[in-house]
């Protein structure tokens, strides 16, 4: 079934605007703010709304509750259905969301209020700035649950924190804490949990005092240096689409849903 996203129909995401700052909140706390197809469509809708609103100068991305910023793709949905559910156009638009976060000509600030893992970790990495609660944890989990992000999610991450650390994150699938993330340059600031949103709003307010045209050109120029990774992402998402239909990927998702360790031994080549 297809549907059209409209602001009044948002179910998975909240959109608020105050003091020239748009706050986009992933609102699925019972699933650790993981995303399904509809969540991604709604996020795109909110980012486009903020992009085209001349009254908005900066955007904050955060998660509902105090446990999770975003736990990536909804693995339970994938284990049950093999996909990420209904979408506006029948396609899972995560690659478009990545592009919009990079391309929107306004600074995007991640307020990481809890765990940022898998595709949720990629979202904060793509934001211009990241501010974390001291309870936040960060990691990649694809090789544990039968997935990967071989474009911005790996190569751009390596650009941000260095090759060894990025490979460690992807190969071991361990979570790191906020202080380690700060020391790796993965986040800009760490705050007390209760001060996170105020700090993000204050940062957005500072950004809003700067020349929007200068910021727009700076963002594009920062991006230009790594934009070729979009081509790799494109290739990798097509590869991931094929991979998620395999028994190996299903073993990862099913093991997560069944709360057991995956057994990938039979897939070694
Ligand atoms: C996030 C965790 C580290 C949290 O651990 P913790 O011990 O604090 O909490 P629980 O494990 O007990 O979780 C609480 C509750 O939330 C449910 N939950 C957690 N994460 C998810 C999720 N991703 N999807 C659905 N549900 C989730 C969990 O089952 C519990 O529910 P109960 O009902 O049992 O209480 C830890 O939970 C964790 O490691 N989660 C999995 C993280 C993960 O692997 N994410 C997905 C990676 S793959 C991905 O993100 C991805 C991204 C893409 O862009 C894709 C694009 C195209 C195709 C595929 C893609 C893709 O796979």
UniProtKB/TrEMBL annotation:
InterPro entries: ClpP/crotonase-like_dom_sf, DHNA-CoA_synthase_MenB, Enoyl-CoA_hyd/isom_CS, Enoyl-CoA_hydra/iso, Enoyl-CoA_hydra_C. It catalyses: 2-succinylbenzoyl-CoA + H(+) = 1,4-dihydroxy-2-naphthoyl-CoA + H2O. Its EC number is 4.1.3.36. One of its GO terms (cellular component) is cytosol. Pathway: Quinol/quinone metabolism; menaquinone biosynthesis; Quinol/quinone metabolism; 1,4-dihydroxy-2-naphthoate biosynthesis; 1,4-dihydroxy-2-naphthoate from chorismate: step 6/7. The record marks 84 as: Important for catalysis. GO terms for biological process: menaquinone biosynthetic process. This is 1,4-dihydroxy-2-naphthoyl-CoA synthase.
């Amino acid at each position: 079934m297809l549907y059209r996203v409209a602001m009044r129909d948002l179910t998975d995401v909240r959109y608020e605007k105050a003091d020239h700052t748009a706050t986009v909140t992933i609102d699925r706390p019972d699933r650790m703010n993981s995303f399904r197809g509809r969540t991604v469509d709604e996020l795109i809708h909110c980012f486009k709304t903020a992009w085209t609103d001349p009254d908005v100068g900066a955007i904050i991305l955060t998660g509902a509750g105090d446990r999770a910023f975003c736990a990536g793709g909804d693995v339970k949905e994938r284990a049950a259905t093999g996909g990420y559910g209904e979408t506006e156009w029948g396609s899972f638009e995560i690659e478009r969301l990545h592009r919009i976060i990079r391309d929107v000509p306004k600074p995007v600030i991640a307020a990481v209020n809890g765990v940022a893992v898998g595709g949720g970790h990629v979202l904060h990495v793509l934001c211009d700035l990241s501010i974390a609660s001291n309870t936040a944890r960060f990691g990649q989990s694809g090789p544990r649950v039968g997935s990967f992000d071989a474009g911005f999610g790996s190569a751009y991450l390596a650009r941000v924190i260095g090759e060894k650390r990025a490979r460690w994150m992807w190969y071991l699938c361990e979570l790191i804490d906020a202080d380690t993330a700060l020391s790796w340059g993965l986040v800009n600031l760490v705050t007390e949990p209760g001060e996170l949103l105020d700090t993000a709003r204050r940062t957005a307010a500072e950004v809003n005092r700067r020349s929007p045209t200068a910021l727009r050109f700076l963002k594009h120029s920062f991006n230009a240096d790594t934009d070729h990774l979009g081509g790799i992402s494109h290739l990798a998402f097509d590869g991931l689409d094929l991979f998620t239909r395999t028994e190996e990927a299903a073993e990862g998702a099913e093991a997560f849903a069944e709360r057991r360790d995956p057994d990938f031994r039979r897939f070694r080549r």
